[in-house]
Design goal:
This protein is of the alpha/beta class. It has eleven helices and 15 strands. It has two domains: about 15-45 and about 275-370, Aspartate Aminotransferase, domain 1 (Alpha-Beta Complex); about 55-275, Aspartate Aminotransferase, domain 2. It has a seven-stranded mixed β-sheet, sandwiched between helices. Strands 11-12-15-14 form a four-stranded antiparallel β-sheet. Strands 1-2 form a two-stranded antiparallel ribbon. A hairpin with a 2-residue loop joins strand 1 (about 5) and strand 2 (about 10). Helix 1 runs antiparallel to helix 8 (about 260-270) and helix 9 packs parallel to helix 11 (about 355-370).
Length: about 375
Amino acid sequence: MSLTGTNGPVDPGGGRRETALRPGYHSPQVEVDVRLNTNESPEPPPHAFVEALADELRSVPLHRYPDREATALRAALAAHHAVDPAQVFCANGSNEVIQCLLLAHGGSSRPAMLFEPTYALHAHIALLTGTPVIAGRRDDAFEVDPAEVARTAAAATRAHGPASPAVTFLCSPNNPTGGVETTDSVRSVLALVPGILAVDEAYGQFAPWSALELIESEPRLVVVRTFSKTWAMAGLRLGYAIADPGVVASLANVALPYHLDALKQVAGRLALGFSHEMHDRVAATIEERERVAEALSNLPVELWPSKANFILFRVSPRSGSKVWKGLLDHSVLIRDVSDWPGLEGCLRVTIGTRSENDRFLSALGEVLSA
């Protein structure tokens, strides 16, 4: 069967070419002894949380649709962050939050602005929603220069009009570089862009400060969080945004009905009762991050300061993939980002348990000396 569109024949199996993720984004899923490639928590959730979740799920009416408003979860998150429930939007991972943000505020004449290198899904989801992407560059230290923000915003305005960019993304700590935007940096960007500023804080608990501190005074600010990392719930796919109630309402308008299942709503609410355990794990991860960074500084690599649960380092502009393969031969899997814009020769390692980190450091030393 052949189909015909406005521009001629359509391949029913081909899809839109621009929707493909850029080459090299997906990290290989292979069986290894040490997996430090996707920034997950190295430990499962607390056993008491799992038991509490199992107990409560026994009474969940699975034959009924979930609470469309996620009322209890939003109330719990609001209490956790000392905001109003009307300022909380929940979704299937932070990526769905970003998707709803772009569906509500992006579009063909409403571009998104970002600064490479950064989280690849910001640009990818923008393209999926038909939102043009205006990309600036970070400096040699992977920081966002206000002059570059002004230049890139001016380019967006020239191309798409005075309301552009409609959405600007900052990732803090930035994935994959690990740096944190300062208070002054966030305020500076807000002063330079007319639309929404989304600060993606998937790794925010590892950082010394959060843009959540500015929420009450900045109605165009959206802070995006996830349960995948510090809450050790990557398998459940739960994320949320804290924003002005009007922005939250706009996100709810574009979300599919009943998009957040009952299991996620229960799990997220219960997880917040284990905040002390989460903070202890964050502290342990930060301690390990500093230990691994110090060990890496004694090897022939270049590394950047990180305030996340991972470290970016460069082996050489030409040997990143070779070193990555050498580590894989030692049954250690990390992330090869050497073909990402501005990251030639770079690799990213997640902070795991002490024994996993020791295994990585030992294997890296062997590979580099081979």
